[in-house]
Design a protein that fits this description.
This protein has 338 residues and is α/β, with parallel strands linked by helices. The chain is built from 10 helices and 14 strands. The longest helix is centred in the C-terminal third of the chain and has 15 residues, at 304-318.
Length: 338
């Protein structure tokens, strides 16, 4: 499928859905929409992803495209009205629109009417299935080893680490799969449950359902974590995934230099060892799991030597092997996990 990605005023640093799709998805990206960086190319900002021109609007996308993908995941998942002209133009060109927002485009009267008139689809990937229920506490019965990424905060690299470890494991000859729990992972993998949109009583069950669906078909499942156990807004979804996955092993993800909760800067992040105690202690009554490895996001460090030093310091604080899964190899981490 050929797509354009909307990332206005957020590319690349705050457009994590756009970057995830550019790095991992099978889409052929015709253009990225960003008014602030229009006229440049994706790889001028991020070198290790699919390249594409950056343009100001959907009107500037000359090539035929099958869909417009919303590549931004703002806090709260709302829809910005200044995106409306691009969505409207896409629909008038008979393009599908794929969105991971909490605001469902299919419930927008204007968009629904245009989609119907032009024979295209509004795909709200954050809409959960209607038949979810509570967990039975049986995810540990699958044949696969379950590995869950957990975080010190939101937006520290849990999805990226999940994707990198799964892909590297397969390249090393292991049979591994991703269990996607968020909008970006679902867009990349083509399936999954959007856990942060699920009724709270059904959160663990929605994760368990996915693990039971694929857990006997693979040797390893890498489950995409969400939020953080200390996050003042998102801790509930983190706990639901932790207990629903009944993971065998955990990977703690962190961003180098981050000291406060993103978007909630009055809250300081605890020491790394405190996270180890929190995650392992919370997992233990349901399914004991240790943090076997760490992943450090060093995107804010330009120098590889400084990044390596930061990773080494993180591994020492964690008491486990660590890497930046994008910048460096994952061999040591995979040895600990597999």
């Amino acid at each position: 499928m050929r797509v354009a990605i909307l990332a206005h005023e957020q590319f690349p640093d705050r457009a994590k859905t756009a970057l995830g799709v550019l790095r991992y998805a099978d889409y052929d990206v015709a253009a990225v929409l960003d008014r602030e960086t229009a006229g440049r190319r994706v790889t001028e900002f991020v070198a290790d992803v699919q390249d594409a021109p950056i343009v100001s609007s959907m009107d500037d996308v000359d090539d035929p495209v099958d869909a417009l993908l919303i590549g931004i995941a703002p806090i709260g998942g709302g829809f910005e009205e200044h995106w409306r002209p691009d969505v409207r133009t896409a629909l008038e060109r008979s393009c599908d629109v794929i969105s991971g927002l909490h605001y469902f485009l299919a419930e927008d009267e204007e968009f629904a009417t245009l989609a119907d008139e032009h024979g295209c689809e509004l795909r709200d990937v954050r809409e959960p299935p209607a038949d979810l229920t509570v967990a039975d506490g049986v995810a540990d019965e699958v044949d696969a080893d379950v590995i869950l990424t957990v975080g010190t905060d939101c937006s520290v690299g849990k999805m990226t680490t999940t994707m990198e470890l799964s892909r590297d494991a397969n390249e090393h000859g292991y049979d591994a799969a991703v269990v996607p729990t968020g909008q970006t992972g679902i867009m990349i993998e083509g399936w999954g449950n959007p856990i942060d949109r699920v009724i709270s009583d059904f959160t663990a069950g929605a994760v368990e359902e996915m693990i039971l669906e694929v857990g006997d078909d693979h040797d390893y499942l890498f489950v995409e974590g969400q939020g953080s156990i200390v996050h003042p807004a998102y801790s509930a979804v983190t706990c639901g995934i932790l207990h629903g996955a009944m993971a065998d092993k955990l990977v703690l993800c962190h961003e180098a230099g981050r000291e406060t909760v993103h978007g909630y800067e009055s809250f300081s992040l605890p020491p790394i060892r405190r996270y180890v105690d929190l995650y392992e202690g919370l997992a233990e009554p349901v399914r004991p799991a240790r943090i076997f490895a760490g992943a450090l996001n060093t995107r804010g460090l330009e120098d590889d030597a400084a990044a390596r030093e930061a990773v080494d310091a993180y591994a020492e604080a964690l008491g486990a092997p660590a890497t930046d899964a994008v910048r460096f190899d994952t061999d040591g981490v995979l040895d600990a996990l597999l």
